[in-house]
Amino acid sequence: MYRRLPGEEPRPAHSSVVATAEEIRNDGRRDQRVTLVLRTAKLIADRAEFLCLVRDVSATGVKLQLFHALPPAKSLFLEMDDGEKYQIEHIWTNGDFAGFRFPLKINLHRMIANPERKFPRRQLRLRVPLQGFMRFNSSEAPIEFENISQQGARIKCDRLLAIEQRVTLDVEKFPPIVAKIRWRERPFYGLVFEQTFRYEELANRLFPDGIERSETRSV
Fold this sequence. Notes:
This protein is mainly beta.
């Protein structure tokens, strides 16, 4: 799901905060820079969406690990896996890492701990312009993706499909995806994949060109 640095111990899935929320509140130095490991997030560049990882963050800026070249955009937002969204401005890029600043100082404790969150985190959903075909029984039909995550997708299809019906998706850049229909609101359907994509795998399949490994700094 991510590449460990030499000598780095394996980390659990989802976010792992080196400093606890209590330490952040009680230690002013920790409040200046908090290191996060494997906090999943979504980078929104104008209307395009990309997967990324938050590597460290402070009240004034954040360092992201990207799986793609940062596109030119008039506006940039960082959406966390709990739905919180923050405006950001690009400062520097070095390989697959990039630094951004927050135009307005954020509530750091809320961003990394979010103690008032009522619902568990769910897989990030990306709105992507994917099209393909869906095979079922001895038929097939064209589909358009509304969004996709590691575990499933929301698609648009004109055909009538049954709940729990097993289908196979043929989509460019992806191997055949076997899924089941979980809900329907014609012409939209919710699918759950039989095999979950790893986070980095999904990012690389959506954007196979990967990172332009260069060093840049915004003025």
